[in-house]
Protein 1
Amino acid sequence: MAVASGARAQTDDAAPFYTGVSVGVTHVSNVYRVGGATALPEGTTNSDNVTTAALLAGLNTRLGRQRLSFDGSLQDNRYANNSTLNNSAYSLRGALDWETVGDLSGTLNAQASRSLAQFNLGNGAELVTQKNLERSREVNAVARLGANLRYSLEAGLNHRSRDYTAEQYDRFVYSQNTATLGAYARPGGNVRLGLVARRTEGEYPRYPIYISIFRVGSQTIDYRRNDVDLTANWTTGGSSQLFTRISTSRVHHDPVNGPLRDFHGTTGAVNWTWQPTGKINLGVQLVRDTGQETLLSTTNVNRVGTSWQLNGVYALTGKLSFNATATGSRSERDDGGFDSERTQGIGLRWAYSRGLSLACQYNHASRDSSVLQYVYTASSYGCTGQALFF
C-alpha cells in the first residue's frame, strides 16, 4: 500500500551522492478497502498502524558529456495488528543522459519497485485479505537527432511489466513493448510541435477463465495497439509549461471473442505546470486512455477511462512547506456499470537542514461503483522523519 511505503529522499540541492535513513508511522483506517457491509475473515483487524523504516541512497554525477543519476529505497513495513501483511519493499530508479559531439543525444532510464498491492482494486478482482505483493518494472530508451535545432527526430523503445503474487489479481498481470518514431518542429522559441507514431505489443499471460462464478483456468491474451500522436509543448517565460497530446488509437486483442474489448477512437492528455511566484508551484494533469496508459487506473484493462490530478506546493517559510493533492478517475462499461474513484491529501514538510526533515500527511480515498462490493472509503495519516548524509 502506498501509505506503508518508505519515503524517497527529498532534497532540492544537487549532490554527487547521498545515503540516508527514514522512519515513519502511519495509521490506516481501512486496510482492506472494503465497505461496511463486507465481512472480513475472523480475527482480521481493518484498522492498523504501520511502521516503515527505510535505507536511502542515490547519486547524480557527470561522466564527461554524460550524466548518471540513481535513487534507491529499501523499506521494511510492519503492521501492529495484521502481522501477516509485514513486507519488504523497494523502489529503484536510474537514468543516463548522453550526448555526442554532433547533434545526437538521448536518455536511458529504468525503474523497478515492489510494494504491498492495494486491496479491493475492483474491475473484476476478487477480495484478497492475504499479503499480495505488486512488482513493476519499466525500461525506456530514447535517441534524439537535432534536439536543440528547429527540426528534430526522436526514436524510442519502452518495456513495461507488472505482476502480483496473489492469483486473484492474475487479470492485472501484463507485459508490453512500445516503439515510437517522431518528428518535431519549433515554429517559435517557446513552442515545440510533434507528430509521433507508436506501436505497442503486449500480453496478459494469466487472464482467468470463468464458468458462471467459478474459475476453471487461465489463458494468454495478446494485444496490439497503434497510435498516431499530435503533441504540443508550450513554455511561457519559464514559469508555466503546457504539454498536450491528442491521438487516434486502435487496440486489438487476440482472441477476438475474448473477455477484453477492442477499441478504436481518440485518446489524449494534458499536463500543465505553473509557478506564479517563488513560493507556489501548481500542476494539473488530465488523461483519457485505456487501462495501461491512464494516469491512475492502470488496472482498468477492459475499458477506456478518464483521470485527473491536481497538486500544489506552497512554501510557508524557507524551511516549512505545505502540499495538497487531489485525484480522480472514472470508467464506464457498455452494460451501464461504472467505477469512480477520488483521493485527497494534504501535508506539511519541515526541513530543519539540508539533510534533516520531517513530513506529515493526511489522505482520504473513496470509490463509488455500480458493484456494491467495490464501494469503500478510507483514510490515513502519519509522519516520516528523514536524515540524509552527503
Note: Residues 1-13 have pLDDT under 50 and may be disordered.
Protein 2
Amino acid sequence: MHIASNIIGGQLRAGSRQRDSHNPATGAVMGRFPQSDAIEVAAAVAAARQAQPAWAALSLVQRREYLNRVADAIAANAERLATLVTQEQGRPLGGVGPDQVPGSRFELWGCEAWTRATASLELAPEVVFEDETRRDELHRKPYGVIAAIAPWNWPLMISIWQVIPALYAGNTVVLKPSEYTSVCGLELARVVADALPPGVLNTVSGDGSVGAMLVEDGDVNKIMFTGSGATGARIVAAAARNLTPTTMELGGNDAAIVLDDADPKAIAPGLFWGAFLNMGQTCACAKRLYVPDALHDQIVDELKAIIAALPMGDGLQPGIAMGPVQNPMQLKKVVALVESAREEGGTIVCGGVLPDGPGNFYPLTLVTGLRDGARLVDEEQFGPVLPIIRYSDLEQAIANANRLDVGLGASVWSSDSQRAAQVATRLQAGTVWVNQHGMVHPMVPFGGNKRSGWGVEFGQEGLKGVTQPQVISLKK
C-alpha cells in the first residue's frame, strides 16, 4: 500500500487525517492520502505566495531549464507512476504507438512531452504600436499564485496541463488532485516539486471541502479547473466573491457526424478510440455518433467487431486492453443511463449488463434506436457506452449536434476532407476534428464554448492564459 503526502514549502506533510484510496479493478485499498484542513490549505497558499517573487524574477530561460529537469524526473519515474495510475485510476498500463493500447504509460509519456513542449515556447514582449512619437509594448506578467484543481480521469496529464504553463510563466501553484486519484496525483507532484525550488509547487488533498477552501482563499490570484459543470458553477460562484479569474474546462457531450461518403471499415478504429479511449472517461470523447441510414448497420458491425477483440480486466495483468469505470458514483450513472435507454426503446447491440464480481467493470456498450431527447443522447455518460443515432438529412444531423448547451469538441468523418471541413465550420464546439476525434496536441489551443467552459489551454494561447497583459508605453 502506498502512503502519499502533501508537499508544502518543499516539506512533506502527512496531515492529521488520512483517507483510503481504492483500486477500481479490485475494490481493495491501494493507498492512503491526507485529508487537508484549513490550516494546511492556508499554509500551502502562503508557501506559494512566499516563493513566487523569486520564481518570477528568474528569466524565461532559467525557468525553461527547471522545467526540462522536471521532464527528466517524470521520465525517470514513469514506470512507477504509471503503475500507480493503473492501480488507482484503473486504466491498463498499455503503451505508446498505433499498435498498443493508450494506457497509463501513454499518460506518463504525455506528461513528459507536454512539459518539454511547453518549455520550448517563447513569451517575448510584442510591439503593438509604434510611430514617430511613441512605442507601445505588450508584456506578459504572471498572476501570482494559481490554484489548480485536477480531475480523476487523466489525473497526471491534466495536472501537468494546468501546472506546467503556470510555472513557466512565473506563477507558483497549489495543486489539488481529485479525491479519487490523490495517491498518484500527489506522487507526481512530489516528483515535480523535487526538481523545483521549495514552495514553487505545493499540494493539498481531500474531498470537495478542501477545493472549496482553496478557491475561496483571497491570496489565490487565478483558478484553473477541469471537471463537471456542477462543480465548476460552485467554483465560479466562490471566485466571483474575490473577483478571481478562472479558466474552466467543464466537459461536454461531443457529437461525431459520419457523412454518407465515408468508408465504414476505414474509419471504425478512429471512431472507436474517439469514443472509448479511457473507457469513455475523457471530456473530449465522442459521446453521440450520428450515422447516415445507408452506413448505419455496417458501422455498428465494425464497432462491434473491435469491441469483441478487446479484453477487459485488471490493467496490471498482461494483455488487458480496457479497465474498469473509475469510481462507483460514475458506474451508477452509466448503469442508469443504459437502463433509461432500454426504457426509451433503444436496442442494446452489445454489453449493457453489469457483471458480477469485484471492481467497477462495465462492458463496452453500443446502443441503437434512440433519438435526440433520449437521456443517453442528451446527458454526458462519461463511460463505456455509445449511442448511435440514424439520420437521413444532414442538415438535421448538424442541428441535432448543435442543440445541446455544451460545446467542447466534435468531429466529422468523410472520404472528402474538404467537404467534412465545410461541415466542421458549422458545428458549435471549441475544437472540431476531421477524420479523427479527441486528438489534442501541446501546441494547439484547446477549450470549449457554451457551458463547456471558457479560456484555452496548450500552446502560445494557453500560455498567455496564465499571464496578465501589461502595456509599457514609451514616449520618444
Note: The chain has two domains: 2-250+452-475, 254-441.
Protein 3
Amino acid sequence: MLVGMATMSRKPGQRYCMTDWETNNRLLMDTAEHQCHQSQQTRQEGRALRHQTACKTRWDESDSRGRLGDRINEVTEQKDRLQFCVQAVEREIEAMTQVKEEAERALADTAVPLEVVVECLTQRKSCRGGELVRDPLEGQLKREAQMIDTTQQELQQHISKAFEQLCCLKEARQQLTFDLTNKTEALDVDLSCLSLTDRSSDISFKPDPTRVPTSASTHQEWEQFTHYNVTRAEEEMQASLQLRETMTSTRIQSQNDLEGQRITTGFNLRKRAHQLQQACSQLHWQHTATREEITELMTDIHHMEQECPLKLVHTRLENRNSRPGVDLCRDQVHSGLVEEAKQLGATIEALQQNLARSMHSLQSLEEHQACMGEDLSRKQEALELEQRSNHIHQRLEALPEAETAKIIPGVTVPKPGFTREMY
C-alpha cells in the first residue's frame, strides 16, 4: 500500500504531442526502411561480388588448369624427345661397343700371323753360305710383317678413339637421363597440381606462395637446356656413327689386304721351295755326273800308265844289234823301228802331258765335287727350312678365311690357282 502510494505520488515525465509522436514513428520507420534498403543493396552487391569473384575464380582456375595442361603437354613432349634420344644413344653405345669388341678381336687375331711371319724370317736366317740370299720371298715376308704391324697400330688407335667416344656417349646419356628424371618429377608435380580442386583435402594456405626461388630458370633457359642436351647427344651419335663406319671399313680393308698378302707370301714360299728343289735336283745330277767322270778319268789315267809299247821297240832294236857281220845292217826294219821309237816317244810325251792335264782335271773335279757336295748340303738345309717355313705359314690359311667369312659377309678375296707350270 505504501509502495503504490509512492508510485502515484511520483512526478510524471514530459509529455509529447501527437504530432511529435507521429513524426517520431515515421522517422523510425523511414530509418528502418532506409537501413533495410541499404542492407538489401549491400547484400545484392555482396552477392554480385561473390558471383563475379566466383566466375573470375572459376575462369582463372580454368585458365590455370589450361596452362597446367599445356605445360604438361610441353613437358611430356620434351620428355618423349629425351626418352627417344636416350634410347638412340643407348643403341649407339651398344653398336659402338660391338664395333670396339670386333676391333679388339681383330687386333688379337693379328698376334698369331705376326708370330708366324717372324718365325719364318727367323727360320730363313739359319741358311748357310750362299743360300742366305735377299730374295723376293724375304721382301714379301717383311712386307707382310710391316702390314701386320701397321694394322695393329691402326686398330689400336681406333680402339682408343672408340673408348673415348664411348665415354662421350655415356656422358651425354647421363646428362639426358638427369634431364629426363627432372622432367619426370616436374611432370608428376604438375599432374598432381592439375588433379587438385578447391574441395581437395590436402590444400592449405602457404607462407609467401608467390616467392620465386633463387635457382629458378626462365622458360627460354629451360628450352635451351633440353635443346643443348639433345643436340650434344645427336652430335656425339653422328661422330660415333662416322667412327664406326671408318673402323669397319678400315678393319675390312686391312683384313682383305692381309689375306691378299698372305696368299702372295704363300705363293712365294712355294715358288722358292720349288726353285730350291730344282736346284738340288740339278746339283745332285751334276754331282753324280762329276763322280762318274772322275771314275772314267781315273781309269783312263791308269790305262795310260800301264801301256808301255816303247819297251817292245827298244827290245827289238837292242836284239837286232846282236846280228853278226854284214847282217848287222841298217835295213828297212831298222829304219821302221827307229821311226816307230821316235813316234812312240812323241806319243808318250803327249800322253804324259795329257796325263798331267787329266790329273789336274781330276783334282779340279774332286775339288768341285766337294764344293757341290757342300753346296748341295746347304741347299738341302735351305730346302728343309723353306718347307718348314711353308708349313708354318700354312697355319694361317684356315684362320683368315674363317674370320673373313664371319666378319665380312659377301666380301671375298680372289685366290689365284697355283700350278707347277706357274713356277
Note: Helices lie at 2-8, 18-109, 111-124, 136-195, 219-306, 310-320, 332-393, 398-407.
Protein 4
Amino acid sequence: MTLTSFGPANRIKRSAETHPLTWRLRDDGEAVWLDEYQAKNGYAAARKAFADMAQDDIVQTVKDSGLKGRGGAGFPTGVKWGLMPKDESINIRYLLCNADEMEPNTWKDRMLMEQLPHLLIEGMLISARALKTYRGYIFLRGEYTTAAKHLNRAVEEAKAAGLLGKNILGSGFDFELFVHTGAGRYICGEETALINSLEGRRANPRSKPPFPAAVGVWGKPTCVNNVETLCNVPAIIADGVDWYKSLAREGSDDMGTKLMGFSGKVKNPGLWELPFGVTGRELFEDYAGGMRDGYKLKCWQPGGAGTGFLLPEHLDAQMYAGGIAKVGTRMGTGLAMAVDDSVNMVSLLRNMEQFFARESCGFCTPCRDGLPWSVKLLMAIENGEGQPGDIETLLGLVGFLGPGKTFCAHAPGAVEPLGSAIKYFRHEFEAGIAPVSATVPPLARPILVGA
C-alpha cells in the first residue's frame, strides 16, 4: 500500500506538524507497537487530557477544532459528543468505533488499524475520558483478520502499561476496550445497525429518534465514531485547535487533513494524507500519476461506490464536502476511483447495484424491492434486451430511493452513482435498448407512477 507525502514526487517528508495521522508510519509498512509509538510521542496527548484537562474541556476542544466524521457522513464530531447526557448518575455509557469498512474502493481505516493500532487506542482513550464511557468496542469488519490481530495485541500492550483497564494513569478513571469482529455486512456501517449487530441482533437500522446518544447499546447512552475520526483526536489535544485548522487549504470549510486515495488504472494507486481543499486534479495527477499508458480517464468517483460519477473536467473541484457538492456529488470516504475508457458504464453499474441489492437489510420496501428491480433492468440493458421506457424507470427508481425516501441512507447511496451514470453516459444505456419488433410485443414492465 502506497503512502506518500504532501509534495509531488515525495519532495516533502511526513512530519508531526503536517501529517498528524501518518507521520509515525514505518517505511517498511510494519506495525508500530507500543515502545516505538511512545518513543514517537505516543500517549502524550492522553496524558495531557487526563492530567490537565477537564472532561468538558476535551469535548469543547474537539468541537472548536471543526473535526467532522471521516466515515462519509461528515457530521461534526464535537456536536455529536455534546449529545451525550450530562447527568452524572448515568454511569453506564459506551464508546463504539465503527471499523466495519465495507465501502467498495475504501481501505483507509484498514491501513490505520494494521500499521498504527495504538493511535486508534489513544484516540478512543481520550474520547472515553471526555464522554465518561467506561467500556468501548472496536466493531471490526470480519474480513480484516490482520487488523484484528494487531488491534488485539495493541490492546494487551496498553493494558500491561496501565493505559487501559482500572485507574488509568492514576486518575481513578476506568476504561475497558474490546475488539469485536462482525460477520461481514455492509449495512453495519450504519451506526444503529452496528449497534444491533453488537447486541447479537439482526443488523437492521433503528428508527431515529431516539438517537444512540440517548438509547444505544443495551439501551444505554452510546457514541459511535469512525476509525479515522478517532485517530484525529490525539493530535488535536496535543497541538491545539488553531494548528489543526491551519492544516486545511484556503477555501475549505472542512478542517485538518484527510486520508485520500485513488484506485483504478492509474500509474500510482495508493493512499495519502492530504489537507482538505486539495483539488481532485492534484490527487489524480501529482499523487496517482494519471492514467496508465494506453488508457484515458472516462470518469471518476470521489469517495467510494456510493458517490456519484464525475467527469474529467470536474477534477479541478476541491476535495472537501462543500467543494465536491458544487459539482453535484459527495466527498464520501475520500478514496477516489478512476474509470477508464474501456469500461462500459452499464456493466459497471449492474455490478455496483448487485452489490448494494445484496447488502440491503431488507427492512423497507423501496430498498428491498427497488434495488433488485434496478439490477434486472440493468442486466437486460447490458444484454441488449432493454425495452423502451427502461431508462425512465431507472431514473424513477433513483428518485424513489433518494434521500428521505427510505429508512436509512443505504438506498440513496446505492442509486446516486446510477443517476449520475445515466446523466453523463445515457447513450451507453440507450445502446442496450432492443428495437421494438413489429410482430413481437415488448415484455411487460411495471410503470413507476409519479416518477
Note: The chain has three domains: 21-245, 247-340, 345-430.
